[in-house]
Amino acid sequence: MRATLDDEFRRRAEEALRERGIDGWLLYGLEERNPVIQDVLGVAADPPSRRYFLFLRPDRDPAVLCHRIEMQPFEEWPGTVRSYVGWREMEDALAGMLEGCGRVAMEVSERDAVPFVDHVPAGVRDLVASLGPEVTGSAELIARTSARWGEEGRRHHDRSSRILAEVAQAAFRRCADSLPGMGTSSSPVTEAGLSDWIRGRLRERGLEEVDTIVAFGPNAANPHYAPPAEGSRKAGAGEVFLVDLWGREAGEPRAVFADQTWMGVLGPEPGRAFREAWEAVRDARDETVRFVSERWEEGRPPTGAEADRAARRVLVERGYEDAIFHRTGHGMDRALHGFGPNLDSVETRDERPLTEGVGFSVEPGVYLEGEFGVRSEINVHMTADGPEVTTPHVQEEPWTAGSREEAGP
């Protein structure tokens, strides 16, 4: 596999380094320890098995340091390549690369505040610091480069979004059709069986890295529920229906994921408790987008943590404080859980701003153990004009099984 470096990535990285007054960005890799350098170099499928470094500095050729027996990926490298055999040779070469640098960025996060960008071992950080430069986090650089969708990524995302929404709707109808007196099918639908059917349909429609969470009734109260292959719950009249599904276009390296969660009730009307929970989750979802948009218009892009708190306020005010089990959303790009900011102030402390080009999910949820759970998930892309919801037919009401027409988004 040949290592590459995208010209647009390099331009944006150098621009961000100048703006932040950082001398360079030192990316470290060893096997699969740092997904950022794997993504930047395009070596995710077969990363080097010895330590290797990429160093980016404004107005200088990109420099690579790798082991002598692993130089093949860099045969066509558009910059400088140095190799080493022993550790002393590696450290001397690294010192030469860093000469004259007072401050360099690496994939580190103080006290692991944002673990999704904390990929450099403490020992490697100590090594670099011992060679002279101050080491600072690269989170903002990642947001300005790897986390950006780009026009091509957005096109792929939009097509995947439409497919997910259509398959989710078809899955609900499949359940409704299996219920006595409500459909034409006499075959029972189970959580495991419907999960397999969804994955198959998504692959048939041209998506890859697909998966789904299907949960009926009280199983929906488990945010990461996985039905057993044998003996999973059958769809029952009046039960809550939750389907979370995701994937991206196959064969497209720049394709951005889509990730959605849809809710329904396998009956003509939701009960009062479910309706109240649904309205709280829906309003928290919409308040998150409104809050981000308002802050964007003020010229103060919010952080992921601030967006998370905006959603939580709604849920807490409605009395669901003890039923919130997870963050409001995750960064998303060419990875399902991507390089950009998460909407999170509880599991982690994600103070990265939601800048132009990044994308994320908004998926508040409340989970009443032993009863049901409710989650609504949409995707958002930050454009020059602010947040844009990319999920088609955003769900305002839960699907119901009273009639086939009522099952639509």
Characterization of this structure:
The chain has 409 residues and is an alpha/beta fold. The chain has 2 domains: 7-144, Creatinase/prolidase N-terminal domain (Creatine Amidinohydrolase, Chain A, domain 1, 3-Layer(aba) Sandwich), CATH 3.40.350.10; 150-407, Creatine Amidinohydrolase (Alpha-Beta Complex). The chain is built from 9 helices and 15 strands. The chain has helices at residues 7-20, 35-41, 87-98, 122-130, 139-144, 150-177, 191-204, 272-297, 304-317, and strands spanning 24-29, 52-56, 63-67, 80-84, 103-106, 134-137, 207-216, 240-249, 258-265, 359-362, 365-368, 372-375, 378-383, 386-389, 399-400. It has a 6-stranded mixed beta sheet with strand order 4-3-2-1-5-6, with helices on both faces. A 4-stranded mixed beta sheet has the order 7-8-9-15, covered by helices on one side. Strand 8 and strand 9 form a beta hairpin. Helix 6 packs across helix 7. The model is unreliable at 403-409 (pLDDT under 50).
Q: In short, what is this structure?
A:
The chain has 409 residues and is of the alpha/beta class.
